Amino acid sequence: MLKIRFTRRGKKNKAFFRLVVAEHTAPVKGRFVENLGFLNPHTKEKNLDADRIKYWLGKGAQCSDTAHNLLVSNGIVAGPKRAVKIRKKPVEEAKAEEAKKEENPAEDTKAEETKPEGKTEEEKPEEAKIEEKKE
């Protein structure tokens, strides 16, 4: 199945995007069938080949959500915009869990208060070693 989607180009922090037709199994930064235009989000410059976009849509190519919304806003495709699904990275989930732990320090202090105040097993052997050295 063919997809009309964006591929990221440019330097770090200076990205621009090409609108391409590619096989849906091809890598995002990989091989594509045809370049249909570009979008530079920094300068708001865009160049889209409307005739070729309509041609590929007529052949059965599907648009990604973001590409569809761009085509609707430029009047190339009629219809409502789609809700864009943003996927969270696993790293962000781990950071969110850490943030929750920091927000609720009361739970951590309760756990510490329930520990007995007597000497633990780890402390006893150290004191025994010190006493042995003194003798």
Query: Could you give the order of strands across the largest sheet?
Result: 4-3-2-1-5
Individual helix count: 5
Helix fraction, binned, reads 25-40%
Q: Indicate the CATH class.
A: Alpha Beta
Gyration radius from CA atoms, angstroms = 29 Å
In round numbers, the mean pLDDT is 78
Report the uncertain regions. none
- Per CATH, which architecture? 2-Layer Sandwich
Order of helices and strands: EEEEHEHHHH
**CATH fold-level topology:** S16 Ribosomal Protein, Chain: A
The span between the termini is 83 Å
Number of strands: 5
What characterizes the major β-sheet?
A: 5 strands, mixed
Corresponding CATH superfamily: Ribosomal protein S16
Strand content: 15-25%
Shape: elongated
User: Structurally, how many domains make up the residues?
Assistant: 1
**From the helix content, strand content and strand pairing, which structural class follows?**
alpha+beta
Summarize the structure.
This protein is an alpha+beta fold and 135 residues long. It is 39% helix and 24% strand. The protein is built from five helices and five strands, in the order E-E-E-E-H-E-H-H-H-H.
